[in-house]
Amino acid sequence: MDDQAPDSLIPYDEIVQEALRAVVGRVLGSVATGGGLPGEHHFYITFKTHAAGVDIPQRLIERFPDEMTIVLQNRFWDLTVDAERFSVGLSFNQVPSKLVIPYSAITGFHDPAVNFELRFQATEGPDEGPEPHDPAENDGSPAGAEDGSNVVSVDFKRKK
Fold first, then answer.
1. Tens digits of residue pLDDT in 62-87
2. Which among 70, 71, 90, 81 has a CA at the least distance from the CA of 22?
3. Which residues contact 109 (CB under 8 A, 6 or more apart)?
4. The CATH fold of domain 12-153
5. What pTM did the predictor assign?
6. For the chain, what are the domain ranges?
């Protein structure tokens, strides 16, 4: 008897990843239209700096050549959200910057106020973990994720 599951002709992993990234867009859209973050909510958003459609200043790409985490908490402005991406103004070392980030570039979304977390596969490159990077500078260092029932980790690996 064969214990291996047959390869699916339906890309379930891609469909689920896309749907969960839409959750990030919906949350950010709610913040953009609601005029700010409600209560104690704040977000750590990690993304691939070289992913297609990412538009960030060159100095940030040089500092974070693979992956970067930004914090949306107290000091951000001009948050705009559409179906494919969001843009936001943040300050890094007192230098204002506009970042444009497609949802497909996001590898992590965390709201520590309610211990909610989503993790995504990178849309490019081999199945490796993220390279180490410096902590976000715009609002402080990311808090460590705590174990809890609101943490959702999605990590699909295809058998080859």
1. 999 999 999 999 889 999 999 999 99
2. 81
3. 23, 24, 27, 43, 44, 45, 46, 117, 118
4. SH3 type barrels. (2.30.30)
5. 0.74
6. 12-153
